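Re: Re: ligand-bound prediction request (bumping)

Still looking for help on this. To restate: I need the protein modeled with S-adenosylmethionine bound, output as structure tokens. Inputs repeated here so nobody has to scroll up.
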Amino acid sequence: MSDSDDDVPTLSAHTLAALQEFYSETRGGPDPSTSPSDQFTVGAVEEDWRMSQFWYSDETATQLAEEVVREAGEGGRIACVSAPSVYQKLKQNVVGGSDRVSAVVLEYDRRFAAYGDDFIFYDYNEPLSLPAGVAPQSFDVVLADPPYLSEECLSKVAQTIKHLSKGKVLLCTGAIMEKLAKELLDLKMCSFLPKHNRNLSNEFRCFVNYPSRLLSC
Ligand SMILES: C[S@@+](CC[C@H](N)C(=O)[O-])C[C@H]1O[C@@H](n2cnc3c(N)ncnc32)[C@H](O)[C@@H]1O
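Reply:
Sorry for the wait, this slipped through. Here it is.
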């Protein structure tokens, strides 16, 4: 064996291809050169309307993060399903108690893979196709914001929610989904009005299956 300078470590073609794929998929994700709190700012990943992305206002993301921290309790586990802004807000260290819960983000947009092990790739078209490490009924609170206002989409996302949830569910979607949300998950509509960074044409609401403060605020 020689220890000359010629022995430059090299990556196999397979590893190199996997790395290139990772970098191309996460391009446009949060800037890793910024401070941790900037990487988790709502909007650190730009909205892409082709994926039906409409981020909450900072205030709404904070209110929803406060709600899930309160409801998850000490050491609780939170799943943010197609709701990356709430995940980001939980990680920004600005919500009291957020350091005493754990959170993951289930997302179709691989730019969020920049968040490492907290990112779980999720396509609602395959509602139960989740990694083996994601145990059934292992999340104290499941918060979901499905990409489309359709029966087909909500029915599939409801399968995922039931699979993940220990009990508490917080769904954010159009008010027109009220009847279906009740049928599928026994959810009640809250008076709390979530806001987005851009105005949406549809009336938007939160729905819960537990006695939440959001029901009457
Ligand atoms: C209406 S937005 C909800 C975002 C939320 N308002 C927030 O600020 O975090 C819908 C989300 O669904 C995700 N999405 C798009 N296509 C999807 C798919 N096939 N399966 C699961 N999620 C998808 C989008 O990336 C987006 O984050």
